[in-house]
């Protein structure tokens, strides 16, 4: 015999989790989209739109954390982690664009692995910004992009990253290599 009452309880829990999970996936995807829009705006030097999109992304992620505070397993979902990681990348890129030190992100609790994942993506954005700057003949900015990317790699190399973040780190090193090429090319023309 099967204890149907007990199974009904389990069914309710599983279906409830799935409903919450779908909501997290949707909202985290929207937050990720706003973070991507923020990066795109910062790349175009549109600080106002970038800050608005970044604030919207943060607001959505904070709302998820508040709404599902008692169900921490939802924050291990890939969509949520991707949204936070994109937010980290956008926030760090904003710090760079503002001429500030890259550092702690206040206002949103972020796990170290997620922070590192976002930081590993930053050299790719710095490469794109350096290309834009080189096109505008802003060679000091090209050098600044390279210096920051080099510093990021220098810090990450000592962390002995594995798994997902190791792959991200390898991509960051490739972006640094591309930046080195841009610096070299601009030095020939400057």
UniProtKB/TrEMBL annotation:
Task: Report a single Gene Ontology molecular function.
Answer: sequence-specific DNA binding
TM regions (residue ranges): none
Q: Which Pfam families match?
A: Translin
Q: Which Gene3D superfamilies does the UniProt record give?
A: 1.20.58.2140
Q: What is this protein called?
A: Uncharacterized protein
Organism, by scientific name, is Candidatus Magasanikbacteria bacterium RIFOXYC2_FULL_42_28
């Amino acid at each position: 015999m099967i204890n149907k009452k007990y199974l009904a309880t389990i069914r309710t829990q599983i279906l409830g989790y799935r409903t919450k999970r779908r909501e997290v996936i949707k909202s985290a995807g929207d937050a990720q989209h706003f973070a991507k829009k923020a990066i795109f705006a910062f790349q175009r030097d549109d600080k106002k739109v970038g800050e608005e999109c970044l604030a919207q992304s943060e607001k959505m992620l904070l709302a998820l954390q508040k709404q599902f505070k008692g169900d921490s397993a939802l924050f291990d979902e890939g969509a949520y982690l991707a949204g936070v990681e994109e937010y980290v990348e956008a926030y760090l890129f904003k710090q760079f664009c503002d001429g500030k030190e890259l550092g702690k992100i206040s206002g949103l609790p972020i796990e170290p692995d997620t922070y590192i994942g976002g930081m590993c993506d930053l050299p790719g954005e710095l490469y794109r910004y350096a290309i834009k700057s080189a096109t505008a003949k802003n060679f000091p900015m090209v050098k600044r992009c390279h210096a920051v990317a080099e510093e990021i790699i220098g810090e990450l190399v000592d962390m002995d990253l594995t798994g997902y973040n190791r792959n991200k780190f390898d991509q960051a090193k490739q972006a640094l290599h591309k930046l080195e090429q841009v610096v070299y090319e601009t030095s020939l023309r400057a």
